[in-house]
Amino acid sequence: MEHIRSLWADTANTHEERPRLEESVTADVMIVGGGYTGLSTAYHLAQKRINCVVLEQHRVGWGASGRNAGMVLTGYKPSVFTIANKWGTAAAKELLDLSVDGIHLVKEIVQRHGIECSLSNCGNFDAAYKPSHYRSLYRNHAFMLKNFQYETYMVEKSDLKTEVDSELYHGGLVDPHSYSFHPLNYALGLADAAESLGAVIYEDTPVVSVKKQGPTFVATTPHGQVKAKHLVIGTNGYTSGLSKPLTRSVIPIGSYIVVTERLPREQAERLIPNNRMIADTKNFLYYFRRTPDDRILLGGRVDFNGEESEEIFQSVRSNLIEVFPELRHAKIEYRWGGMLGFTFDFFPHIGQLENGTHFALGYCGHGASISTLMGKLIALHVMEPGRSKNRLEQIPLKQVPFHGQRAIALNLATKYYRFLDRFF
């Protein structure tokens, strides 16, 4: 299956299709999923000359890795202040540092291999949807500055147009440590880098089943088979029946994007003057940015079945107009959707199942860089199983309650969070 049509697919670097698996092969490690998690795992294993095979059912970067908004952000879905209240200041500091390490790792890989993906240290802006949200952002800003010497800065509503020309918000917070990139070109470049070190990647190769025969994992595909000592599942929002424990622990959530026609440079620069990556503070947030060719990209509209429709994209276009009313008559030239992977506690998770399967998932919309770090950590765990674990690796994975009635539970949760967005 080809990449779905998107701005990123239409502006992707030249790349060749990889072959599908049509034989039986053996490896030290087999990796299911050709997104950032799986590709990073392969890259870091191949650096140490460990024989690894990546099995991707469509194309490298076909899922969220090639369809996201290209926002390489620090932090997690919960704020650092929230994390500190839950686990303490030391844990919050370690988790914050790990998220920054993820960004530095992306930068290191891009520079080392000359990946052309428009990587830019533009920073991000959290736009306060309500005055109370501004106060919460300020609390987070003050906490990080006092306890970690981590510098962010606040923008009051009277100065909002220095960051975004919209009347919808009440100021916000700038984090200058974040980046932007072309997400699909990063995925393609990461795949090339992994292959240059010896990793083998098969596309158009869905895994039909995985069984464990003694100490060996055996994966069956429509045209071949892989046997390996280690199995890695890195499918995130596209995790399906290969592993029941993982399927029951991740919530696939659809998110949808629209992109305008190219705007006059002056207009694009006025709407988002500093080219920040922007997200607001609603539970069902809007996220938006300028693209390198002077378009405005905006994503939103949570959906739990992942099915695209005219109604959904009209809703996202209405969100765009709510933020920027002057774009009412701008043509929408691209629109697409995809699945994110959420967990019950809104944290990413990494670990090993009882049968030995390695996994990382649940990035909750913050996976552009942390997934690359997760791949490195999985590789380390394969190579050094007795190594001490960081705080991120110690968070236990929990199954979603009422999994059998998940559709009902998610529908109720949606209504609840929309209520909160409206009144709080």
Automatic annotation (TrEMBL):
Signal sequence annotation: none
Gene Ontology annotations for the cellular component aspect, listed alphabetically: cytoplasm
One Pfam family per UniProt: DAO
Every FAD dependent oxidoreductase domain range: 28-379
Top-level taxon: Bacteria
Name of this protein: FAD-binding oxidoreductase
